[in-house]
Amino acid sequence: MDKQHFKLWYFQFRGRAEPIRLLLTCAGVKFEDYQFTMDQWPTIKPTLPGGRVPLLDVTGPDGKLRRYQESMAIARLLARQFKMMGETDEEYYLIERIIGECEDLYREVYTIFRTPQGEKEAKIKEFKENNGPTLLKLVSESLESSGGKHVAGNRITLGDLFLFTTLTHVMETVPGFLEQKFPKLHEFHKYLPTSCSRLSEYLKKRAKTPF
What we know:
This protein has helices at residues 18-26, 41-44, 71-81, 89-114, 117-129, 131-145, 158-173, 177-181, 183-191, 197-205, and strands at 5-11, 32-36, 55-59, 65-69. The protein is α+β, with helices and mostly antiparallel strands. The longest helix is centred in the middle third of the chain and has 26 residues, at 89-114.
């Protein structure tokens, strides 16, 4: 693995690439985090397979380049390689369950993020009164059933990192809601960086982005 070179292509956002960045960081894997602006995208897009990002380039010891697409397929591949996809079938299930639940939550908060400013307040109100509590309750119960500190087992997995990034989006998009209504999820969000020094250092240095 040490002889492989990893290059991750994505916009200057966290978005769909962030779980991949966090996973590589926690695994202690050096990678080239190639971030580009929206202005650069029209030039870069035709050079990428399918014209889509995130894209992960992996150059092996033999010099052969392999290109991987689809954010969660990349994340799952790396999680499997770096032993962050659970140690048993049951742990694998718990990780996949939380990822599925977080995908639904991610779509909700991303919709709010993309809503025009003048309509955003109404969209946030709708989230608080409808799907938000239902989805967060589901996630909270899943985490609690695993002990509350980690999604599966007693070490960081892809499930933890995907949950962490999703909760970050919730806290930024709907300020105060998670802290007030779902304190156990908020506690998890505060705890996770303390369980991995590499993650903690990365978060301290991470550039501020809107999403």
